[in-house]
Design brief:
rod-shaped
Amino acid sequence: MKSNIEKVYSKLPKTELATQKVELGIADDIAKMQSKLLASISDADGKLKEFKNAKDEFTKAKEKVSKVKATASKASSLYEKIADDTDRVFDKALKAADDLGVPPSSIKGLTDISRLASDLLGKAEDMIDFKFD
C-alpha cells in the first residue's frame, strides 16, 4: 500500500520539473543574448567613432583640395607666361645667332631652356587637368 505522501506525490502534475528546466533555459538564453547585445553595441560605438574620424579627415582633405585648386589657375597662368617669355628669349637668341653667322647650338643653354619651357607647360596643363577623385 501507498503511504499518504506517495499518494499526494502521485497526484501532483508531472510537468512541473520540465517547466522549470525550460524557464532556466530561457533565462540562460536571455543572459547570453544580453551579453551579446552589449558587446555588439560597444563594437558599433567603436565603428561609429571610426566613421566620424574618417568623415572629419575627409572634410579636412576636401578643404585642402579646394585651397589647392584655387591656386592652380593662378600658378598655371604664371607658368604659361614664363614659357612665353622663354619663347621670346629663344627667338632673340636664334636671331642673334643668325646675325652673327653661328649655329644656334653653339649658344650655351639654348636647347635647355626650350626643353625646360616645354616641361613647365606640361606641368601647368597637368595642374589644370588634375583630378582629385
